[in-house]
Amino acid sequence: MFTLGTKKKIVQVDGMTCHHCEMTVEKALLEVSGVKNAKASHEKKSVEVQYKDALDINEVKRKIEEVGYKFVSTN
User: Fold this and answer.
1) What is the phi-psi region of residue 64: left when phi exceeds 0, alpha when psi lies from -120 to 50, beta otherwise?
2) Which CATH number describes the domain made up of 7-74?
3) Chain centroid offset of residue 17 CA
4) How far apart are CA 14 and CA 42, in angstroms?
5) Are 48 and 63 in contact (CB under 8 A)?
6) What sign results for the dihedral spanned by CA atoms 53, 59, 65, 71?
7) By C-alpha distance, which of 5, 2, 10 is closest to 52?
8) pLDDT one-digit tens code per residue, 4-39
9) Do β-strands 46-51 and 7-14 pair in parallel, antiparallel, or remain unpaired?
10) Measuring CA to CA, which residue among 13, 28, 7, 4 is closest to residue 71?
11) Given pLDDT bands bounded at 50, 70 and 90, which one contains residue 1?
């Protein structure tokens, strides 16, 4: 669900292979300031990040890599 007043960014992530991987990345990204929701897909190798106001992409990258996956790029 896309909440009114939020923005969206798609982040490409390598290394996710299952539902557990998706949940791990989502949980980590919910700890980033401003992130309202994160929906990962190991099949698409991406995470849709919904945030309010601003998003620190360096913090997103750090969190993804902290839990063992590779940040590839963002749109």
Assistant:
1) alpha
2) 3.30.70.100
3) 15
4) 8
5) no
6) positive
7) 5
8) 678 999 999 999 999 999 999 999 999 999 999 999
9) antiparallel
10) 13
11) very low
Instruction: Decide: 49 and 11 in contact? Cβ < 8 Å.
Output: yes
Tokens linked to 2? 């896309």
43, amino acid identity:
E
- Quickly list DSSP for the chain: ---TT-EEEEEEEE---SHHHHHHHHHHHTTSTTEEEEEEETTTTEEEEEESS---HHHHHHHHHHTT-EEEEE-
Burial of 43 (C-beta count, 10 Å sphere; 0-12/13-18/19+): exposed
> The tokens of 38 are what?
């994160």
